[in-house]
Amino acid sequence: MKFSKKSRYGVAALIDLAVNSKNGHVALGSIAERNEISPQYLEQVFASLRRAGIVKSVKGSQGGYLLKYPSSSITVASIIQALEGTYYLDDEETKTEESAAGIAETIQEDIVDRVNHGLDQILQNLTLADLEESFQERQSGGQEMYYI
């Protein structure tokens, strides 16, 4: 697995959308500008996210995007799958090796499969809402607000 630029930009843009869409749709250009991402590239990313049912578009001159579901229902796994197809570690050598005494199977089962299982657990349990909350905590400097 490689965390590609496409996945990084997609996750960043969705965090931005989650934070900024509380009062309605958000223009793709404003997301691109805030995150310093090419608007043309971001259009391609959002086309994949729209096809996967993660975002929905509002057409027109005042159009933009909204999350199709609450951010708490959107997993990081679903985002990466929409953009990359898979997020699993892939060992090309294991597929083609003719190794003695089950070495290829040992590598596959004891390393690759275990890493993939752990990765799956993390990404299936991490939601866009979790990332949104973490981002907002960082934005506020991690300081709690006290009111008197």
Kindly describe this structure.
The chain has 148 residues and is mainly α. The protein has a domain at 5-87 and 127-139: Orthogonal Bundle (Arc Repressor Mutant, subunit A). Helix content is 58%, strand content 5%. The chain has 7 helices and 2 strands; from the N terminus they run αααββαααα. Strands 1-2 form a two-stranded antiparallel ribbon. Strand 1 and strand 2 (64-67) form a beta hairpin. Helix 1 (5-20) crosses helix 2. The longest helix is centred in the C-terminal third of the chain and has 23 residues, at 103-125. The model has no long low-confidence stretch (mean pLDDT 90).
User: Which structural class is indicated by helix and strand composition?
Assistant: mainly alpha
**Name of the top-level CATH class of the domain at 5-87 and 127-139:** Mainly Alpha
Task: Assign the CATH superfamily of the domain at 5-87 and 127-139.
Answer: Winged helix-like DNA-binding domain superfamily/Winged helix DNA-binding domain
C-alpha geometry = elongated
User: Count of DSSP helices?
Assistant: 7
CA gyration radius, whole angstroms: 19 Å
End-to-end CA span:
49 Å
- Characterize the main sheet: 2 strands, antiparallel
Poorly predicted runs: none
Q: What share of the residues lie within helices? A: 55-70%
Say what the CATH topology of the domain at 5-87 and 127-139 is: Arc Repressor Mutant, subunit A
Helix and strand pattern: HHHEEHHHH
- Physical arrangement of strands within the biggest beta sheet: 1-2
